[in-house]
Amino acid sequence: MSQKVSPEIVRDPHLFAFFVNKGKFQVEEVYNFSQDDLLTEDILVLDTHAEVFVWVGHCADPKEKQNAFDIGWRYIEMAASLEGLSSNVPLYKVTEGNEPSFFTTYFSWDPAKASVQGNSFQKKVALLFGVGHYAVEVSAWFCLHFLN
To answer: N or C: which end of the chain has fewer CB within 10 A?
Structure first.
């Protein structure tokens, strides 16, 4: 007697950005995502089908930061009804600069990019031009005082 072995279905992970537009919760998928899509002003959800991560950028809206788990649970509820995601999938909150290896494995992770501070534009300038420590401090100050 031969037994059929059903292989696990391997699905690609998906990254989603969330917006509140006129009081309505909206989701937009980020296709062909990379580490560069993790913008410091955003909160994003990475769905690996085995777990869900809510990534929280340093300069994200403070109210959204407080509701990071709510965003994750709302995503899980939506994905459970539309995509068949298990409603018992583990949910993790990941903060910018503290990404664990089990999160970074889904990206081509560059630690140098992760260590640069400031808003998204300032980070790109620092990486492009190799701007020094002073610019990073100014960027962090700008983010703290004008974006929060």
So the answer is: N
Look-up of token digits 């990475």: 46
In angstroms, rounded to a whole number, what is the distance separating the alpha carbons of residues 33 and 129? 24
Q: H-type helices in 7-67, by residue range?
A: 62-66
pLDDT (tens place) for every residue of the chain, 148 residues total? 555 544 455 579 999 998 777 877 788 999 999 999 999 999 999 999 999 999 999 989 898 899 999 999 999 999 999 988 899 999 999 999 999 999 999 999 988 777 666 666 665 665 566 654 444 555 555 566 655 5
Q: How many domains does the chain have?
A: 2
- We report the CATH number of the domain holding residue 51 as 3.40.20.10
- Give the range of the structural domain holding residue 88, as residue numbers without chain letter: 1-110
Tokens of 109: 């992770």
